[in-house]
Amino acid sequence: MAPTHVLRCCQRGLAWIPVIFIALVVCWSYYAYVVELCVLTIPSIGEKIVYLIFFHISFILFVWSYWQTIFTRPANPSKEFCLPKAEKERYEKEGRPESQQEILWRAATSLPLYTRTGAGAIRYCDRCQVIKPDRCHHCSACDMCVLKMDHHCPWVNNCVGFSNYKFFILFLAYSLVYCLFIAATVLQYFIKFWTLCRRKSAENCPKNELPDTHAKFHVLFLFFVAAMFCISILSLFSYHLWLVGKNRSTIEAFRAPVFRSGSDKNGFSLGYRKNMAQVFGDQKKYWLLPVFTSQGDGLTFPARLVNPADVEQAAVTLQPEPGKSAADVPESPVSESQNRLLSNDQHANDIGDHQANNTLKPAESEAITISMEGES
């Protein structure tokens, strides 16, 4: 049997096949549109110039965002989420899950953790040997824990998460614009070439028809490919826009977080405007550019208050496991990014008129208990 590292290298090589396929299709579409359509087919100089200008703008933005999505490394948990060497050795020697959880609870005391497993335990990755931050999951394809993991995309051969989720959204948006522009501008010549192909004899062709050259095959196929990609990308892009508006990842859409008061699929939603700002940033002038402007550090995320009791019970801390004292329960410090997101105005999910102009204080944030279902 071949060595493990050889098999892994083969897997990594095969994983680039979808990306190479997309790259070849894009290169052919560039040649077909610029050379076969604009240079050899369109008779009007003014029409050629206008088409080429807008085509290259959409092409550059599309390739730029696609490049960023592929080659932006997924963000991983920082060193503070790794167990100390002594604690790691104790954890590995322990055979009982209860004893292992005691070690994790002590190690997580100073970490900004709100989420738990469905059983209320600390989320720990045995593969990466780190305590998982909120919304962090292990990607088996990348073989690493990814901050705010959304999914692993084979078409970019990368894991989509906190570090490149904005790039992925822009990649979908500009690929849709690219395909729509091609389909819209090619349509009239597609009709003319299609009509020309259906003629039985040259004398039946009107004089204003395009010549029967090899360019017609590129134009006909270009329209079909653009239309096909438009349909598939539109559905995916619409779905991810909906996820951004709800502040959910694809994983969270299928497995809702569990809060102290129960399961709540909108637990991280702060209102549409703030949800958009978390992904695209505060400055709207950078929203359409494939540059990183997402808020936060990917380790901590603000969560909405689940019910009025969470506001009044500011002294309530995370619930300890059975047999543990309150001193063993980790506190949950609030990051600057959380305060900044929650300090502007009260989000749509706050309950009660007396909350309208208040911001979420650190003591109130510590009152929030979040738990997630256990990962398989």
From TrEMBL:
InterPro entries assigned: Palmitoyltrfase_DHHC, PFA4/ZDH16/20/ERF2-like
Membrane-spanning ranges: 15-42, 49-67, 167-191, 217-242
Mode of membrane association: Multi-pass membrane protein
Residue stretches making up the Palmitoyltransferase DHHC domain: 123-254
Ranges annotated as biased composition (Polar residues): 334-346
Catalytic activity, reaction form: L-cysteinyl-[protein] + hexadecanoyl-CoA = S-hexadecanoyl-L-cysteinyl-[protein] + CoA
Localization per record: Membrane
Domain text: The DHHC domain is required for palmitoyltransferase activity.
Name the UniProt record assigns to this protein: Palmitoyltransferase
